[in-house]
Amino acid sequence: MPQLNPLDWAPQLIWLIVTFGVLYLLMVWIALPRIGAVIETRAAHIAADLAAADKLRRETEEAIAAYEQALAEAKQKAHAIVEEGRVKLKAETDAERAKLDKKLAAKSEEAEARIEKAKLSAMKEVNAVAADVAADIVHKLIGTAPAKGDIEKAVAAARKA
């Protein structure tokens, strides 16, 4: 085998150094600069993406804060509208209640007057009916009808007792 022959080692070493040198120079001048450029491009692209993501995150946080503030304002406005409506409705209800109370009071007074009138009328009729019944009872018992004035006096005395 020629590789193991010590006489062939010197030319092999020279070719090894030449080949290594050429490959080294190709790596230093061509491959490594290209790889470095790709790495730098990727790093710049990643940095730009991170900056854009951070900017979008800040914009999102600002949008969320603005949304929450608008929501709080809307809730306050809605609460104020509801409270205003409640106060207005209570005032209208109170006014209607006052009108209804007045009408009911007037009707109650009118009804009490009618009841009193009916009571007096009924009492007069009760006295007349009681006098007629007493006259009939006395007539059946003794056979003669007493005087109308006596019967009315007797009914009035019995009612007082």
Can you put this structure into words, describing what you see?
The protein is mainly alpha-helical and 161 residues long. It contains two helices and no strands. The chain has one domain. It is rod-shaped and about 185 Å long. The mean pLDDT is 90.
Shape: rod-shaped
The tally of domains stands at 1
How many E strands?
A: 0
Helix content: over 70%
Strand content: under 5%
Number of helices: 2
Order of helices and strands: HH
Mean pLDDT: 90
Rg (CA only): 61 Å
Low-confidence stretches: none
**In whole angstroms, how far apart are the ends?**
163 Å
Largest sheet: none
Structural class: mainly alpha
Key words describing this protein structure:
161 residues; 91% helix; mainly alpha
Layout: helices, strands, pairs:
Layout: H1 9-142, H2 148-160
Helix pairs in contact: 1-2
Brief sketch in words of this structure:
The protein is mainly alpha-helical.
